[in-house]
């Protein structure tokens, strides 16, 4: 069964190109790139062949290549030349362009030593399938690192538009993407066959002078509404103004600035290899937990003494 089409991938590329023309806003990717470098620094090994899967700018590639732990970096992007172009303050990197989409990876099995992706995979239609493709492309003991936007991202904007449309338009139109939930991501990594899966979350609150300033940043990020089920008629001015009024009323700090939540989910997993740590077989322990804790062991069904 084909996965449901949630995101209009062609429109997403158009929105990203528009963001580049406007002058991209990169503060989220800058933060993610710095954290990628910190996390890779803790892995004391060299990766001969790495691939950046769809990160919208060169920020992650620039940060990781600067660590000196990567031989060759492939930059995957569906737009020709977009993978290595100058974006914001990030110069062209030494990455090699691969023109392809994250939903259909072009790599043979057991090819990559490292796969990374920054703020891209939240917009694929079949995330379990993409994770399985990444796992297949990694060599044994290859590493996967990714950051993607999580479920509470832009929750204030979602609430404000829902309120305005309910009041003025008689129904709610999908306007903010259904980002994945942290609780599901560990299970998806295991389902895809990754060993030693780890997930954690970084929650960032950004403050803006007005809600309109947030909307301007989202356009410059290429993050305007890419949903297939979006309303196809132009947003009415009355609805927009009411949404901005709700936002400014309900999500403002005492100084008048408004809050915007960005939740970044971090994923890591390894392609299985015999050298990796594995849990012991049940019953193979050589010491009792009760002895270590200095307590009396109570067998199943037995009640403790009063």
Architecture blueprint of SSEs:
Blueprint: H1 9-22, H2 27-41, E1 47-53, H3 59-65, E2 70-77, E3 96-99, E4 112-118, H4 127-137, E5 138-149, H5 155-168, H6 182-191, E6 195-208, H7 211-220, H8 237-250, E7 258-270, H9 289-293
Parallel strand pairs: 1-2, 1-4, 2-3, 4-5
Antiparallel strand pairs: 5-7, 6-7
Overall, the morphology is: globular
What is the total tally of β strands? 7
CATH superfamily of the domain at 9-152 and 178-207 and 262-274: Vaccinia Virus protein VP39
Report the total helices: 9
SSE order, one letter for each helix or strand? HHEHEEEHEHHEHHEH
CATH class of the domain at 9-152 and 178-207 and 262-274: Alpha Beta
Estimate percent helicity.
25-40%
Mean pLDDT: 87
Task: Output the structural class.
Answer: alpha/beta
* Name of the CATH architecture of the domain at 9-152 and 178-207 and 262-274: 3-Layer(aba) Sandwich
The order of strands across the largest sheet is: 3-2-1-4-5-7-6
Task: Supply Rg.
Answer: 23 Å
Beta-strand level of the residues, as a percent range? 15-25%
Can you put this structure into words, describing what you see?
This protein is an alpha/beta fold and 306 residues long. It contains nine helices and seven strands. α2 packs parallel to α3 and α5 (155-168) crosses α8. It starts with 8 loop residues before the first helix and ends in a 13-residue tail after the last helix.
């Amino acid at each position: 069964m084909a996965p449901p089409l949630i995101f209009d991938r062609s429109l997403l590329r158009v929105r990203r190109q528009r963001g580049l023309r406007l002058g991209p806003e990169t503060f989220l990717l800058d933060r993610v790139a710095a954290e990628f470098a910190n996390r890779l620094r803790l892995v004391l090994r060299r990766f001969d062949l790495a691939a950046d899967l769809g990160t919208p700018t060169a920020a992650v590639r620039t940060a990781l290549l600067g660590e000196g732990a990567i031989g060759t970096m492939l930059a995957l992007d569906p737009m020709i030349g977009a993978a290595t172009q100058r974006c914001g303050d990030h110069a062209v990197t030494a990455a090699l362009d691969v023109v392809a989409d994250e939903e259909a990876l072009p790599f043979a099995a057991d090819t990559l030593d490292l796969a990374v992706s920054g703020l891209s995979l939240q917009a694929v239609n079949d995330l379990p399938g993409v994770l399985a493709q990444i796992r297949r492309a990694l060599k044994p003991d290859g590493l996967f690192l990714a950051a993607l936007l999580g479920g509470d991202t832009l929750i204030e904007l979602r609430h404000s538009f829902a309120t305005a449309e309910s009041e003025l338009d008689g129904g709610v139109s999908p306007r903010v993407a259904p980002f994945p939930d942290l609780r599901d991501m560990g299970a998806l990594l295991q389902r895809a066959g990754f060993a030693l899966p780890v997930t954690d979350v970084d929650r960032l609150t950004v403050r803006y002078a007005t809600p309109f300033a947030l909307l301007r940043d989202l356009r410059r990020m290429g993050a305007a509404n890419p949903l297939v089920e979006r309303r196809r008629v132009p947003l009415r001015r009355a609805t927009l103004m009411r949404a901005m009024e709700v936002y400014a009323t309900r999500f403002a700090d005492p100084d008048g600035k408004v809050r915007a939540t960005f939740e970044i989910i971090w994923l890591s997993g390894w392609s299985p290899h015999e050298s990796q740590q594995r849990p012991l077989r049940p019953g193979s322990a050589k010491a009792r937990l009760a002895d270590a804790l200095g307590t009396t062991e109570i067998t199943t069904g037995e009640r403790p003494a009063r």
